[in-house]
Amino acid sequence: MKKYRWGIIGTGRIAHTFAEALKGCEDAELLAVASRSKPKAEAFAREFGFERAYGSYSELACDTDIDAVYIATPMSSHYGDVLLCLENGRNVLCEKSAALNTAQLDEMLALAKSKGLFFMEAMWMKCRPTYLKALEWVRDGRIGQVRYIKADFCNLVQYDAADRLFDPACGGGALLDLAVYPLTLARDFIGDPKEIISAAHIGRDGVDLSNSIMLKTDSAFAAVNSGFEIPNRNRAVIVGDEGSVLFGEWFFCSCEVSLLDRDGCEVERSEIPNEINGYEYEIREVHSCLGAGLDESRLVPHSSTRSVMQIMDKCRRDWGMTYEGEEL
Ligand SMILES: NC(=O)c1ccc[n+]([C@@H]2O[C@H](COP(=O)([O-])OP(=O)(O)OC[C@H]3O[C@@H](n4cnc5c(N)ncnc54)[C@H](OP(=O)(O)O)[C@@H]3O)[C@@H](O)[C@H]2O)c1
């Protein structure tokens, strides 16, 4: 069996979760991890069994034994980290949101294309079996024409000035951290919006703590809320003129999705438990693309990442919320 050799950049929260999934994938090899601090990289390598630990991201980017690099740094670092990896010939899976804005993303995509390298945003939701089941139902016309989507990603996060979520220098804010999921879902099921109306609570540090976004196409609406100030169970519903699709709580990682008729009665239900922790599906997608020599995933195409980034640019432009040195 071909084994894909992985490198990880950044040793924070999601890097741990991802490494756990990698460890459980039999065709993945945990080759290298990089941190800005060598002792942190060494501790992470010991914890998960990585062979190599680097004290800088550039050392890892230059490691030609690596088949794919997973970038798990804050949003503001993605641009530099992705370019570093691509320039050194590495394939990249980069955490969401892939960049701060469309201009950064376009540079990443152009470089990946010119180098013939694989690039994918780690939008794991789009690789999950329940999500693919929902797409199948809607594509098969099971709910008729999609008319309305309601999808939220809200939770209560204690303010901490040191947390990247609240720090503009790290690309903080609920939009790039949370709204990217319901916006991706909305765009998948109603297409690119013709109108975008939004509002946000901007906190003391200059990033959005909560936001509400409405998307409109010729035939459908989507209402998306996200934020750090609202406790919510975050279900998502896609309503068509002949039925609806209802995701379980925390829709983006839900293992349950139901197909309902027009009266709200369940017609079909899909329950697919995670095999590891849910991140195995995006890892398998990367392996499958690399195995097929593709530079872009069919499940998470560049066009999807870019369209959602454009929506987020428009929201932030309307809110007057820019990151340092950024022109939107
Ligand atoms: N897919 C998901 O379910 C999911 C969940 C959570 C987060 N995410 C995404 O994953 C990325 C990382 O999120 P996280 O929650 O893991 O963040 P985190 O816990 O703060 O970790 C980020 C890591 O990035 C590195 N880093 C590089 N520059 C940094 C800087 N200026 N400030 C702080 N850390 C810096 C650090 O690693 P070193 O010190 O080792 O260099 C740090 O441990 C974000 O893009 C986020 O949106 C995805």
In brief, what are we looking at here?
The chain has 328 residues and is an alpha/beta fold.
Per-chain topology:
Elements (H helix, E strand, L loop, with lengths): L3 E6 L3 H12 L3 E7 L3 H11 L3 E3 L2 H5 L6 E4 L3 H13 L3 E4 L7 H14 L3 E3 L7 H11 L6 E9 L19 H17 L4 E8 L5 E9 L4 E7 L8 E5 L2 E5 L8 E6 L4 E6 L8 H12 L10 H18 L9
Parallel strand pairs: 1-2, 1-4, 2-3, 4-5, 5-6, 7-10
Antiparallel strand pairs: 7-11, 8-9, 9-10, 11-12, 12-13, 13-14
Helix pairs in contact: 4-5, 5-9, 7-9
NADP nicotinamide-adenine-dinucleotide phosphate binds next to α1 and α4.
Helix content: 25-40%
Bound molecules: NADP nicotinamide-adenine-dinucleotide phosphate
Give the total of domains.
2
Distance between the termini: 46 Å
What would you note in describing this structure?
- The chain has 328 residues and is α/β, with parallel strands linked by helices.
- The chain has two domains: 4-122, NAD(P)-binding Rossmann-like Domain (Rossmann fold, 3-Layer(aba) Sandwich); 125-273, 2-Layer Sandwich (Dihydrodipicolinate Reductase, domain 2), CATH 3.30.360.10.
- It is 34% helix and 25% strand.
- The protein contains nine helices and 14 strands.
- It has helices spanning 13-24, 38-48, 57-61, 75-87, 102-115, 129-139, 174-190, 280-291, 302-319; strands at residues 4-9, 28-34, 52-54, 68-71, 91-94, 119-121, 146-154, 195-202, 208-216, 221-227, 236-240, 243-247, 256-261, 266-271.
- The strands form two sheets. An eight-stranded mixed β-sheet has the order 8-9-10-7-11-12-13-14, with helices on one face. It has a six-stranded parallel β-sheet with strand order 3-2-1-4-5-6, with helices on both faces.
- Helix 5 packs antiparallel against helix 9 (302-319) and helix 7 (174-190) crosses helix 9 (302-319).
- The chain is globular.
- 49% of the residues are buried.
- The structure holds NADP nicotinamide-adenine-dinucleotide phosphate.
